[in-house]
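Design a sequence for this backbone.
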């Protein structure tokens, strides 16, 4: 798609690249497995889009195109699937633009049942939940600031088999919620629940701590098995603009997320550097040459990988787990791939520290496959 739609909106492009790529993979996997899925866009806009006719630079435009194409391809392969999109927008003018667009393009997306709702996500959560009757949901929460998605609304919408992508407005939250105040405490209680909020009361809070609390909330309150985040860098300053937070209960969800991130984020960080290099923004020299947050963290995680794999493998001594679960646990917090983890496990097996269970499946196999058990057999000398 023409990059001109995202001129000076690099962060939005990165967010949309992640969403499009994730949706593509999600659609084939979930529609193939369950035959039907709901996509719920709780804060759908339109918002600051440049394409006023096709809305290709909006989350709902991207969802319609991607999901309709996936369903059409599956139908061609003899695997018909049902897709429903539920778009929700609070601002009445934007909601009217959304509804007009939906009415105009409905015939172009015949594989998708489309609903456009007006009202706040919080107020409409029960209606959204009633509409979403398919066996799997993907929920996208992309607010303008840091309000509008209280825990109770998320709990209402994130039920059953579900995944959630939440845009955590890192920069805004850092700027507005660092200092303790009554408003901040109220916000924290609404977002992460009373118990987690109580731990933070009265403290200065960097956005990383709040993000860690939201990640915890995804697991303790929303019951996702895995909660991960992807960093989207600001153009203007060497800081995070967004953290895209993902909740999933499937190891495959973690694999897909890390894979799409590896495709979308280096490109974003390259574009950010390019804009700075073109002299449109001044940076200190060392900042100009250092990698972006994704690149920096990925290098660190690769460096740490031998230690991480060893530590987690040692924990499997009493509770062996499949490679799939093992890898998803490593990848929940680290920007690495299953192939990179397999190589490390293979090396530990060569050193006699992990049982090469995969040899019983195929004696020539060098590394584990998803279903092979990871079993720690020895403690390292000293
Ligand atoms: C960042 S924009 C969404 C952009 C869109 N998801 C995209 O990627 O193209 C946030 C939208 O949420 C709307 N909004 C703000 N508060 C809301 C609320 N409480 N419930 C639903 N929508 C809300 C705003 O009017 C705005 O259109």
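Sequence:
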């Amino acid at each position: 798609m023409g990059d001109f739609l995202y001129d000076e909106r690099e962060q939005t492009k990165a967010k949309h690249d992640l969403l499009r790529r994730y949706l593509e993979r999600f659609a084939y996997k979930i529609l193939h497995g369950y035959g039907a899925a709901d996509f719920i866009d709780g804060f759908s806009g339109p918002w600051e889009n440049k394409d006023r006719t096709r809305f290709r630079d909006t989350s709902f435009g991207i969802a319609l195109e991607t999901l309709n194409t996936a369903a059409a391809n599956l139908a061609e392969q003899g695997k018909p699937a049902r897709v429903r999109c539920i778009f929700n927008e609070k601002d009445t003018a934007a909601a009217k633009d959304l509804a007009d667009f939906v009415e105009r393009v409905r015939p172009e997306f015949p594989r998708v049942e489309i609903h456009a709702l007006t009202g706040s996500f919080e107020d409409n959560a029960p209606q959204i939940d009633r509409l979403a009757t398919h066996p799997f949901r993907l929920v996208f929460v992309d607010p303008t600031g840091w309000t509008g998605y209280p825990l109770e609304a998320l709990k209402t919408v994130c039920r059953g088999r579900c995944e959630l992508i939440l845009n955590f407005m890192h920069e805004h939250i850092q700027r507005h919620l660092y200092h303790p105040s009554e408003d901040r405490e109220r916000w924290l209680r609404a977002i992460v629940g009373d118990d987690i909020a109580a731990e933070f009361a009265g403290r200065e809070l960097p956005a990383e701590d709040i993000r860690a609390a939201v990640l915890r909330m995804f697991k303790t309150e929303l019951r996702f098995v895995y909660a991960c985040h992807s960093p989207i860098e600001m153009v203007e300053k060497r800081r995070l603009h967004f953290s895209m937070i993902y909740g999933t209960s499937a190891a495959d969800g973690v694999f897909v997320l890390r894979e799409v991130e590896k495709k979308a984020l280096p490109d974003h960080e390259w574009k950010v550097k390019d804009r700075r290099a073109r002299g449109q923004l001044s940076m200190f020299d060392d900042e100009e040459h250092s990698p972006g947050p994704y690149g920096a963290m990925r290098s660190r995680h690769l460096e740490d990988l031998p230690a991480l794999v060893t530590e987690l493998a040692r924990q499997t001594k009493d509770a062996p787990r499949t490679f799939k679960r093992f890898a998803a646990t490593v990848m929940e917090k680290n920007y690495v791939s299953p192939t990179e983890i397999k190589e490390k496990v293979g090396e530990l097996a060569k050193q006699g520290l992990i049982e090469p269970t995969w040899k019983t499946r195929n004696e020539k196999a060098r590394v584990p496959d998803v279903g092979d058990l990871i079993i720690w057999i020895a403690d390292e000398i000293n």
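The beta strands are 36-41, 82-89, 112-118, 137-141, 162-168, 226-233, 240-248, 321-322, 373-374.
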